[in-house]
Amino acid sequence: MRISTTSAEIRSQLKALRGHRSIAFVPTMGCLHAGHISLIEKARTLADIVIVSVYVNPLQFGANEDLDTYPRSFDADARACADANVDFLFHPATLYPEHGPNISLKTTKLSDCLCGAARAGHFDGVVTVVNILFNIVQPDIAVFGEKDWQQLAIIRCMVSDLHMPIEIVGGGIVREADGLAMSSRNRYLSDSERTRALAISRALTAMQQAARDGETDAEALKTRARNILQNAAVQPEYIDIRHAITLKEEQQLKHQPTRAFIAARVGKTRLIDNVAINTPLSCDGQ
Ligand code: PAF
After folding, report:
1. How many folded domains does the chain comprise?
2. What pTM does this model have?
3. Pocket test for ligand 1, best of 52, 72, 130 (most atoms within 8 A of CB)
């Protein structure tokens, strides 16, 4: 595995490969866990060369968010990447000019709901850095986790709107044995908070099951989830049921691909998770 820290370095390393080896890219902010490794493994099945980036992007953190304390563990990340047969690891010190970006991208749709509603500018920061990373790496395929479903939807939209010749692939959510979705932020949780946090996946599974059993009223499903969170003293930021692609809010579930989304604070830690919601009426098996 080759590690590079500047865009010039990674570009020159990739130059000889372009055109005759396909490249799959997994952008990350490091602190890699089994969820990231599953994205790397997926990338490995899709292309000849796998590149991972580790960069904590300041542009996607709000003023009161956890940029300074966001966990950083580059040595462990590098070992995990080597063990997962990553070919190139890109770890830039910064991707922006000294005094911040002169140019950035702005999301106009899909970002005014779910996490975007509470984290102003977050997705602008995400698409700006992903655009920069795509320009540097120029992958054929890029793999993003479905836990950040809204991010995945927005990146698909960016690639389509900006005519980027990159295939975006989603990687399924990896969960701990007890259902908690893997996240770099799980390490902030105390033991008792971690137990309470399980209410999030329980609430999503309850919505999923009720829909499978025939409940089509979104508000009734959300009420179930709200009660489960309340019983665990978990404060939801949102409980939403939305179209999987347009992210439009759904009131009645019919044949459309639909997902349930929760963001909640457990102690000081903000966690997100989502699941596919299929009713007996749904025509696809997402
Ligand atoms: O999902 C993440 O880890 C980040 O948002 C990403 C896509 C690497 C951009 O910084």
Report:
1. 2
2. 0.96
3. 130
